[in-house]
Amino acid sequence: xxxxxxxxxxxxxxxxxxxxxxxxxxxxxxxxxxxxxxxxxxxxxxxxxxxxxxxxxxxxxxxxxxxxxxxxxxxxxxxxxxxxxxxxxxxxxxxxxxxxxxxxxxxxxxxxxxxxxxxxxxxxxxxxxxxxxxxxxxxxxxxxxxxxxxxxxxxxxxxxxx
Length: 162
Known about the structure:
12 strands, alpha/beta, 162 residues, 9-stranded mixed sheet, globular, Dihydrofolate Reductase, subunit A, 3-stranded antiparallel sheet
C-alpha cells in the first residue's frame, strides 16, 4: 500500500483542515499517482475537497467513526478493521492513503511506500505526518532534483519500508 503526502520542514501537513500550500507540480504528481486507483481518507479530508465531493476517476474510501455519515460517490467505513477488510478487495499497489493525519497514523503500519513532497519551509500547522526520517524501518529510495515554485523549494522523495 502507498501513501502520498506533502510535508513542511517540521512534517506539518495542514492547518484548519486545509493544506499548508498548493504547489501545482505536487498536485499534478498527486493526480498522476492516484488516477484510476483507490484512495483512502478521513471524513475531514473528503469535506475539504471542492463541494465535499469524492475525487473523480478513483475509488474513494472514507474512514469515519460517525455511523450515520454518508458520502455520495464514496464508500464509507467506520473502523480500521472494516477498512482493511474493504481494502482486501483491491490490488495493494493501487491503494493510496491521502490523509488526514489520524488516517495516516492508523495506516502507516500497513503501507510499504510513501510518496512525500518535502517543502523546505516551516509553516504554522495543526496536523502532522510522522517523521519518516526518524524511523529506522523507512529508507529513501528515490529523490528528485530540488524544484522551485515562486520562492518555495521542494523535493519529491520516495520512501520504502526496509
